[in-house]
Amino acid sequence: MSDGAPHPTTTTPDPRRRSLVAGAALLAGLAPLQGLRAAEPLEPDEEALFMNGTARPTADGRLEVDIHAWIFEREHRWGLDSALARYLGLSLRKLSPAARLRFSQRTALFHAESEEDKVIDVVFDGSPTRITMPASGKDGRSNLRIVIDAPRDTREWVRYHGVTGPGELLHRFRGEALVVPEEGVSVISDIDDTIKRTQVRDRREMLLNTFARRFEAAPRMADWYRALAQAPGARFHYLSSSPIQLYPALSDFIRSAGFPAGSMHLRESTTWRTLIPGDEDSRAHKLGTIERLLAEFPQRRFVLVGDSGEADPEIYAQVFRAHQARIDSIVIRDVTGEGRTSERYRATFDGIEPVRWHLVMPDTTAWPAQALN
Fold this sequence. Notes:
By secondary structure, the protein is α/β, with parallel strands linked by helices.
């Protein structure tokens, strides 16, 4: 996806190309290239997870769409939940039955095995357009950027579904891309401790809140976001260092908690041991995603929303200094109690006009009036 993955290609390669190359080598009396194999369609026990991407209108009235898929096979071996719980320092026996079930559901994709050299076709709703995604890489990822005729009744979303063979529609493998107008305001929002209570600074609480407890929305944030969504051309882009294995749970949370739907930009699929990213990995992921959104939508204005629990203030200040004309404001939800006059904020926002950055304190009942110009 556009959140740290390589930029999608603008062409659709023929999935038979590899087998043709291998065949030519054999005819020439040469040994086939080591590791060369034909891409294959998905097996019945393999799945494709499409993540919310973005789409942009083109000058000729078409749409340029980003499609991001992860292809994988679930592992159903007994004991995987217990092993992961031990690694995370959690005791399943001490959890309630509901919490154990939640843990099993949210960790399921961390047991999945990424599938390489798999192809899947995509059919757009309301359109005869059918395209073949590039073969998946070792990480199971397949990314494509393609220009299509705008499907009928396209307003905010382009919707599509995966197809693996003639007439075989995989309705459970559905995806969508947010149509982002040329102009308007885009809200780039962090997730953990910004719109969802996670307690990132306390490892045990973070793990329990991520895997065993119901997701809890940060007070008043959904109401404020819905108000922001009324601005002309407003769009939301949710940015997090959480891995894509948490995409289904986070998507459900955003919908059920009443936040405006938007594109999702998570880290790549990961393993148990890289579940919690290092500070530099998280920073690079967030900076890279923001820079891409700014480059892909050059006429839009941006509001950056995060929290004080991690490096959001520092990351957003760096972005602001590089793109002052593009950033309307920075809003930080205070979870550390440092206060606006703290040494951290004085150093972080030094030289940035005070009216361009805002703190949302725990007792705040109103969104900063100047946050959206």
